[in-house]
Design goal:
With about 400 residues, this protein is mainly beta. The N terminus is likely disordered. The protein has seven helices and 26 strands.
Length: about 400
Amino acid sequence: MTPYKFLRAAASAILALAMSSCIFPFEVDYAEQTGNLPLVVEGDIQVGGSTIIRLDHVRPFQEPEDGEWQQYVFQHVTGTIEGEDGTQVTDSYYNYLPEFLSSYMGPSTKGKLYFDTRDLRPDQRYRLLLSVQGPEDASPTRYESDWVPVNPAPVIDGLSYIANIPDEELQIGLSMHCRGAHHFRWTFEEDWEFHSELNSYYMFDWQTHFVRPYDDYHTENTYYCWAREASYAAQTFSTAYQTDDRFEDLNFHAVKLKDKRLQMLYRIRVHLSAISDASYSYWETIRQNSEEQGSLFSPTPSQVAGNIHCTSNPDALVIGYIDACQEVMGEMYYDNSNEHYFIPGPPVQFDAIEMSNIPEINYSLYRNSLLPYQTVSTGGGEPNYIWAPAYCVDCRRNGGTKHKPADWPRD
């Protein structure tokens, strides 16, 4: 890998001003609002891919009290993406629950509308139509966005990284270009493989309470794990101040060298799309408003003109902007077995417990968050087992899972 030079000094300052973050969903205090709560619509029409539209209500800063969450439930929601050529793609849900209710209702909540927009044509204009019925509404409320053209598809020329040793971080750069667009938005997700502090070949058997070897170490061991994290804030940047709509090695993300993401194998996938001037202006206004933290002179989100309107009630408040994009994806791997930039932490200090294989004692040790990881010979008899804190033995105790990504490049 060829290291790259980072933008510095004045260029870095300008770039910092060009980058922003859009945080969803909005949480604005509308205690004085009567009737239906203002609707929040988030998402873009993704031509050539899958489109996800999230709906929510503007809600107060404080969490709803018992019984109050029902007002945020949508009894029935239908969404349609319509093209000027007559194309229509539809999704619909009964009892549509915003994502924030998952903490109350469990992970089965339906907080998204999904549209298969792979076959939409980029030479058409599109709009979003919504029919939303609340729990006490006699008839649905209808919304529609303005017609929007499809923004051109950017090109990701590459992702690269360099170790910033003084700052102890791996800096990740994006190179891209695009013809006919000046504003861009990206999100990313990270996957990584890591391991626990101690490698154990033994397990506590829940059925017998005996310690025994793994039946299949390759699949049952708790030494190797995988983890995933996705960015929930859409980052934006602009090339409007440049002569060309391109960036070389845009330093957009960094991972600390002590982070276990880099312990073994790390992958980042970047999703990039061009957005319209109007969309960029809208989200910039929202960002600036949030940074002013409620200044008397800053507009509330409802006063920022989006492109979604309520057709059945022109006075109803709607927050959001629907754009039409062509998202592209780029990925990069970091393999620590080749680079060795990962900085391991100090060895974990603990008092190990040596115990013979007695079910009652084993169960007591397990209940106290200990796990077996090693044997000690007792001179021809049954071995004793060494127990250690579970977080040292089981990588799942550190946020990992045994579910390896289906496309992970190695066993």
